[in-house]
Inverse folding.
């Protein structure tokens, strides 16, 4: 006796065929379902395609003045953003207080803890926590291997771990001491 794997039901005629079972490239939410053309639909000829293209070009030309106004608005927004960046640059130019700084990085990850707070980066993702946003900072070293894990806990019960690969296991002790010095200097002050 034969046993079939999978559904034996077929989609009804006229219903759209969707899902990964029918289209391996289908990703719900990212792609729209493929619409079947009716059987009586005729293929578009070259003349009809050129006419449709000319109509689209005419619509685009009519929208050009609106796009110019939108471009001017974007330029003004860019100028405002430039002014904000200049303000940020002025803040960055302020001398950092003389205090401890912890910084550790490997080929993918990076952590910096200083007077501003804790900044984590992994590949192209970054996050920054001010000292008043941090509930606790936890460190952990791997029993075997060279992974140093720093986890930032927030008061709303979320945590953000990052692993740094050390060049040698001797870096763990130095990193722990540097991070403790930063936490003693800045984290206690904010509470």
């Amino acid at each position: 006796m034969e046993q079939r794997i999978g559904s034996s039901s077929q989609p009804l005629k006229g219903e759209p065929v969707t899902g990964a079972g029918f289209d391996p490239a289908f990703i719900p939410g990212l792609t729209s379902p493929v619409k079947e053309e009716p059987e009586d639909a005729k293929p578009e000829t070259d003349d009809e395609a050129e006419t449709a293209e000319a109509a689209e070009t005419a619509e685009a030309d009519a929208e050009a003045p609106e796009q110019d106004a939108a471009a001017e608005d974007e330029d003004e927004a860019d100028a405002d953003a430039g002014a904000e960046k200049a303000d940020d640059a002025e803040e960055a130019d302020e001398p950092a207080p003389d205090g401890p700084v912890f910084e550790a990085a490997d080929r993918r990850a990076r952590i910096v803890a200083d007077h501003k707070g804790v900044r984590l980066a992994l590949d192209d993702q970054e996050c920054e926590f001010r000292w008043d946003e941090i509930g606790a900072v936890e460190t952990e070293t791997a029993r075997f291997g060279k992974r140093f894990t720093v986890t930032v806990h927030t008061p709303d019960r979320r945590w953000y771990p990052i692993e740094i690969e050390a060049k040698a296991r001797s870096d763990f002790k130095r990193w722990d001491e540097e991070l403790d010095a930063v936490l003693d200097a800045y984290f206690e002050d904010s509470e």
Observations:
- The CA atoms of residues 111 and 120 lie 5 Å apart.
- The two ends are 73 Å apart (CA to CA).
- The longest strand covers residues 147-153.
- DSSP finds two helices and seven strands in the chain.
